[in-house]
Amino acid sequence: MTALHDARLRQGVDAAIDTALHDDRIVGAVVCVTQHGVKRYARAAGWADREAQRPMQWDSVFRLASVSKPFVTVAVLRAVAQGIVALDAPVSRWLPFFTPPMPDGRPARINVYHLLTHTAGLDYGLAQAVNGPYAQRGVSDGLDLADVDLAGNLRRLAEVPLNYAPSHGWAYSLAIDVLGAVLSEAMRMSLPDAIQTLVGAPLGLRDSGFFVDASQAERLTAAYANGPDGTVPMADGLRLPFPDAPEQGVRFAPSRITDPDAYPSGGAGMSGSAADVLTLLESLRAADPAWLPRAISPLHCGDLCGIDVASRGPGWGFGYGAGVLVDPALAETPQSPGTLAWGGVYGHHWFIDPKHDLVALVLTNTAYEGMNGRLTVDIRDAVYQALA
Q1: 66, 140, 265, 311: which is the annotated catalytic residue?
Q2: How far apart are the C-alpha atoms of 75 and 14, rounded to whole Å?
Q3: Three-class SS string for the chain?
Q4: Which one of 222, 234, 242, 289 counts the least CB within 10 Å of its CB?
Q5: pLDDT digits (tens, 9 = 90+) for 186-208
Q6: What pLDDT score does 253 carry?
Q7: Residue 272 — φ and ψ, nearest 5°?
Q8: Sequence-separated (6 or more) residues with CB below 8 Å from residue 380
Q9: pLDDT of 290-334, one tens digit each?
Q10: Helices 68-81, 175-187: inter-axial angle, 10-degree rounding
Q11: Is pTM beyond 0.85 here?
């Protein structure tokens, strides 16, 4: 195991952040790198709200988008360890209506494992054309201002035929929204309360949740999007195409996180600070069997239950809640095999490298640069160049 060189790490990551700010690829960011659970780099840079001239702070609160998924994934896996749910249990045990038709018309039998691994046959509206099947049925991705509650959205989802029979494919999807509803029913409490009971309270999290109230509003970052002439403030209803697939894209509603009536989307609806997200990631890195048994830990699912798909491109598979690096050469990355990584469309990226006992967290307020832009590659490379 190789140790990080602090001065080299600071110089490299600072340069990556400063260049992204100078080039107007991001407006603000909080970046942290740890090794062996010790914080080796931490910086808040740029603006939390450029128009209000409010600087980014370590305790700034972000719309987490898909960084919500590890919270729900860990909560469900802890419920599995406690015997509250089972990996092979059918979703219909808790959601009797959720038996979407398979391509051949027969009702599907989706289980908890399918949802955790995105092998249920579900999809995301953001991955479909503007007037795709989900849009036609009014299915929300959990990022927009929906006209239904969680149960209503899942009922709409259950009306759309699956892309494939469960276990016969992989696609990043609304599975974690369904999983959140399963957890809520199994715990007999709301999803926010279930997350707090299983994850928030045990880890001492202070800022994570599905709603930003008045006490947190002054710490909430403004949301920005990358445009042809630099970063621009994001407004409700903005549809931001993916650079490599312009027919697909996300419809954002930054005000959703301050709407007390917005349903709790397990896949995209949480907010939180860097400290809370880092604490969650560290709980996985530490691999404490009292927290999560090895057999169901996302950190070990690459060799135990990994799905052989190009989840983040060539060389990446998928396990419980995150991409799993299978072939670093094919992926063209210095990260180690077994590295977990994922991100969020509001501009976030994280990875855990178990070989080097590393955690890196990048939270920005700029889509999509902070999720999969040059900044994420530059920070990754700076971390590995700092390994002495």
Answers
A1: 66
A2: 34
A3: CCCECHHHHHHHHHHHHHHHHHCCCCCEEEEEEEECCEEEEEEEEEEEECCCCEECCCCCEEECHHHHHHHHHHHHHHHHHCCCCCCCCEHHHCCCCCCCECCCCCECCCEHHHHHHCCCCCCCHHHCCCCCHHHHHCCCCCCCCCCCCHHHHHHHHHCCCCCCCCCCCCCCCCHHHHHHHHHHHHHCCCHHHHHHHHHHHHHCCCCCECCCCHHHHCCECCCEEEECCEEEECCCCCEEEECCEEEEEEECCHHHHHCCCCCCCCCCCCEEEHHHHHHHHHHHHCCCCCCCCHHHCHHHHHHHCCECCCECECCEEECCCCEEECCHHHHCCCCCCCCEEEEECCCEEEEEECCCCEEEEEEECEECHHHHCHHHHHHHHHHHHCEC
A4: 289
A5: 999 999 999 999 999 999 999 99
A6: 98
A7: 175, 170
A8: 333, 334, 335, 351, 360
A9: 999 999 999 887 555 567 788 999 999 999 989 999 999 999 999
A10: 40
A11: yes
Which tokens is 375 given?
């900044």
The question of whether 140 is a catalytic residue gets the answer no
The amino acid that residue 255 corresponds to is S
Query: Rounded distance, CA 270 to CA 143, Å?
Result: 10
Phi-psi region of 86 (alpha: psi -120 to 50; beta: other; left: phi over 0): beta
Tokens of 372: 């999969």
Residue with tokens 């590393």: 358
